[in-house]
Every structure is written in structure tokens, then in C-alpha cells.
Amino acid sequence: MKEFDEFVAIMRRLRRECPWDKEQTHDSLKKHFIEEAYEALDAVDRRNFDDLRGELGDVALQVVFHAIIAEEERRFTLAEVFADVNAKLIRRHPHIYGDAVVNSGAEQSALWDSIKMTEGRMSVLEGVPQHLPALMKAEKVQKKAAKVGFEWEQREDVWKKVVEELDELHAAVESGNAAHTQEEFGDLLFSLVNYARFIHVEPEQALQDTVKKFTTRFQYIEQQLAAAGKDIHATSLEEMDALWNEAKKR
Q1: Which fold has domain 2-82?
Q2: Distance from C-alpha of 56 to C-alpha of 4, rounded to nearest angstrom
Q3: Would you state the pLDDT for residue 172?
Q4: Which residues contact 112 (CB under 8 A, 6 or more apart)?
């Protein structure tokens, strides 16, 4: 595809001639990689496909940028990146490129995981990115453990664990032990993620939706106070709470 070849040629030239591009390293680009991925997801959520087209280009830029740096360091090439992923896709889809039989998405997911374990992994939990948001990471770890049978049997038992962790958090807070409180707070969140799986809720998305809802309602408060010529810093909680309730009704 000539557009892709032109894109790679542009990136190589920028790497040679642009001062900013020449300074970049794998480490310096990490934050940009994450930001671009989230901007692409934001475009998906907004169903703005013009923005998505542009954001996918930005994600591709990061992929190629890292590969070019790796080529310079003689670690691997851009061609090897695509050769590896091509081989992996073929290897992990034996029902398409071989004789295996798969009748559902769940069966394919299990097959995918079993193939990964034959590729040198020592733990079913390997491959969980450390930079994932904590709720997503917790869900991913739990799902991987569940696939080999390390799983609660009943939803009610998971809820009992949530209540148990909530009580332990309250006790830790009352004890005044900050480190213990943080540990118990993490345990509570982890158990809530577990419960979310049992009630078919995506915890990361649920919290994102709640933050969005809070933001919309709080900005309504700001807008109403500004329209009335009032300073939010001098507004009472009671007045802001009344506006909050108005926002909820809207």
C-alpha cells in the first residue's frame, strides 16, 4: 500500500531531520502511546468516525516510531514486527488455518489462551500489561485465573466477600493505620471488580460513565451559578446541592 510506504518514509525522514523526533526514545514515547490509544477510544465512545480515522493514524505513528528506534538500535525491524504478528495470528487460529474445530467465541478464547501457554509462558497471568488502569488489570487477572478453574461458584458468595472486605476496610480506618487502610481499600475494589464480572458489568466502563455523569452535573452547577453572577467559591453547599438535584432531574 503506497500510503503506508509513504507514511513510513515520512517517519524515517522526521527521525533523521527533526530535532524533536531525533531526541525521542522508547521511554519518552510511552506517555504519548497511551494518550493516543485513549484518544482513539474516546472517538469510538463518541461515535465520531472522522476523529477515529485521525486517531488511528496517531496510534499507527507510535507503532512505527518505536519500530524505527528499534531498527536504529539493531534490535528488530518494522518488517519483523508485522512478520511476527502475522505468524501469531495464523498460529492462534488453527480453526481457520488448520484442522481445529471451534464453535463459539468462548471456545476460541480458551483455545487462544491454551496456545499462548505452549509459547513459553510460565504463568496464566503472564502478559497482563503493568500499565493497564487498575480496574482493567484486576478484571483481566481475575478472568485469566477463572479460565483455569480458580473462580467463585456462586454470585452470592462473591457479594459476601464484598461485604467482608467493606467491614475490614471500616475496621482499618478506625484503627488509624494508613498502610492497612490502603491495603483494605484495594481489597475492597478487587472484590467489587470480581462481583462486577458476575453481574456482567465492565468495571472500568462503569466508573468512566459515573465520572462523566458527575462531570456533567457539576458543570451544570457552574453554569447556573455563572448565569446568576455568583462565585462558586462563595456558594454554600446547600445551594450547590440544590442545583445538583436540578441537574439530576434534567
Answers
A1: Helix Hairpins (1.10.287)
A2: 13
A3: 97
A4: 92
Q: What is the pLDDT of residue 132?
A: 87
Q: Do domains 2-82 and 134-201 have the same CATH topology?
A: yes
Query: For the segment 199-234, what is each residue's pLDDT rounded down to a tens digit?
Result: 999 999 999 999 999 999 999 999 999 999 999 999
Do the Cβ atoms of 40 and 52 come closer than 8 Å?
yes
Long-range own/partner contacts, residues 54-62 (CB < 8 A, 24 or more apart): 59/33, 60/7, 61/11, 61/36, 62/29, 62/32, 62/33, 62/36
> For position 1, what pLDDT does the model report?
85
Q: How many CB atoms lie within 10 A of CB 214?
A: 12
Domain ranges of the chain: 2-82, 134-201, 205-249
Q: Provide CATH code, domain 134-201.
A: 1.10.287.1080
Q: Whole-angstrom Cα distance, residue 168 to residue 189?
A: 12
For range 144-173, the mean pLDDT:
95
Q: Report whether 81 contacts 67 (CB < 8 A).
A: yes
Cα separation of 60 and 115, whole Å? 27
Average of pLDDT values for 65-74?
Answer: 98
